[in-house]
């Protein structure tokens, strides 16, 4: 019996890891410039956690998992930020798998302190509640995009939003390209000055150009991070890469 269980476990791991290595082969888009960062999640040493920190795990080599179970929208989320700062003009690439749809997934880009401080070490500690990151008095500025956008009761909200903070200003909106759960999606996010674009599985899903009518300067360089929030929001991130972007990427 022990040998049978061990064999089943090994087969399961081979299937999961194999899927991690091949899931985006039909739809991947690579940035036009040089790769400036890659994280295969052999461990999570390069990531900083906030909010429900126990929910960020490395269940398999190659996977970072964010599990916000037990919270709800309006309360603390499960947050993970890459410790590295990234320049402007980048193509962010990763694969995403949403296990449960009682919540949503947010990607932050260009996050830095209001006065240019490091968004992790240069600002006051945060508790993981959304106003810490987007409120009028937030200590950081950033853009963010939300996908797989369900409420706590697993009812889809109908849209995917781009926002700018502090202030949670709506920059752009489109249909949510990540409605199905338990499916791998290949994501590209372009950040080039006031222009941001979201590609999912090789197709342009949404984009905006910041009109720059807000008195504060636009987000430029800074951290990239993920937030899972909801009563049972669970997401896996894999194959995280960042490329320099020269404006010529096309699907």
**Principal-axes shape call:** globular
Number of helices: 2
Average pLDDT, all residues: 88
Number of domain modules: 1
What gyration radius follows from the Cα positions, in whole Å?
18 Å
Q: Report the structural category.
A: mainly beta
**Oligomeric state, counting identical vs distinct chains:** single chain
SSE string, helices as H and strands as E = HEEEEEEHEEEEEEE
Short summary:
With 251 residues, the protein is mostly beta strands. The protein has one domain: Sandwich (Jelly Rolls), CATH 2.60.120.200. 10% of the residues lie in helices and 43% in strands.
Characterization of the model:
There is one protein chain. With 251 residues, the protein is mainly beta. It has two helices and 13 strands; from the N terminus they run H-E-E-E-E-E-E-H-E-E-E-E-E-E-E. The chain has helices spanning 2-22, 131-134, and strands spanning 35-39, 47-51, 56-57, 64-67, 78-82, 90-113, 140-147, 160-165, 169-174, 184-192, 195-200, 203-209, 223-244. The protein is globular. Mean pLDDT is 88; it is low at 1-28.
């Amino acid at each position: 019996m022990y040998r049978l269980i061990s064999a089943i476990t090994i087969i399961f791991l081979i299937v999961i890891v194999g899927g991690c290595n091949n899931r985006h082969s039909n739809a991947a888009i690579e940035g036009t410039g040089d790769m400036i960062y890659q994280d295969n999640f052999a461990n999570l040493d390069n990531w900083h956690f906030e909010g429900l920190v126990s929910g960020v795990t490395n269940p398999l080599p190659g996977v970072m998992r964010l599990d916000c179970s037990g919270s709800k929208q309006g309360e603390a989320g499960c947050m993970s930020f890459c410790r590295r700062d990234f320049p402007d003009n980048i193509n962010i690439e990763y694969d995403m798998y949403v296990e449960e749809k009682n919540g949503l997934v947010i990607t932050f880009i260009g996050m830095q302190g209001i006065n240019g401080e490091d968004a992790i070490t240069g600002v006051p500690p945060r508790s993981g509640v959304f106003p810490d990151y987007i409120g009028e008095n937030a200590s950081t500025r950033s853009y963010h995009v939300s996908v797989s956008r369900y409420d706590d009761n697993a009812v889809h909200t109908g849209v995917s939003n781009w926002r700018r903070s502090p202030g949670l200003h709506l920059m752009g909106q489109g249909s949510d390209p990540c409605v199905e759960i338990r499916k791998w999606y290949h994501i590209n996010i372009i950040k080039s000055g006031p222009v941001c674009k979201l590609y999912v599985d090789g197709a342009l899903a949404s984009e905006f150009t910041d009109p720059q009518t807000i008195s504060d300067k636009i987000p430029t360089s800074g951290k990239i991070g993920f937030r899972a929030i909801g009563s049972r929001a669970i997401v896996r991130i894999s194959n995280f890469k960042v490329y320099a972007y020269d404006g010529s990427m096309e699907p």
